[in-house]
Amino acid sequence: MYKKLTLIALVAALIAPVSAIAATVDASLIPDGTYTVTVQKVVDPQHVTIKMETGIESTIGAGKSIVKFTKVKPNDQIECSIAKGTIIAFIDLSGH
């Protein structure tokens, strides 16, 4: 029994750092392009935290004053165009 608990604790200790690696990335490191992402949190009308299909998370700002995140909600999927670490346009794929 003690050996099983030790093994479980060891596996948990090894897995924890791996999940931390796939955490938040600076938005400026995301290559320019169009991505389908999931909204994690709307920080304010000009900033949103997203999770990419690869598991990368980032808090990213609007690249233009006309881009506003007031109508998106957590867990919504959006298709966004990212340029120089900002979202310059997006489409809400969640249907609302």
The 3D shape can be described as: globular
The portion of residues assigned to helices is 10-25%
Low-confidence stretches: none
- Major β-sheet strand ordering: 1-2-3-5-4
Total count of strands: 5
Q: How many structural domains does the protein architecture include?
A: 1
List the secondary-structure elements in sequence, H or E: HEEEEE
CATH class, anyone? Mainly Beta
CATH topology: OB fold (Dihydrolipoamide Acetyltransferase, E2P)
User: Structural class, judged by helices and strands?
Assistant: alpha+beta
Q: Give the DSSP E fraction (strand runs of 2 or more residues).
A: 35-45%
User: So how many helices?
Assistant: 1
CATH architecture: Beta Barrel
How would you characterize the largest beta sheet? 5 strands, mixed, barrel
Concise summary:
By secondary structure, this protein is an alpha+beta fold. It has one helix spanning 2-21; strands at residues 33-44, 47-52, 57-62, 77-83, 86-92.
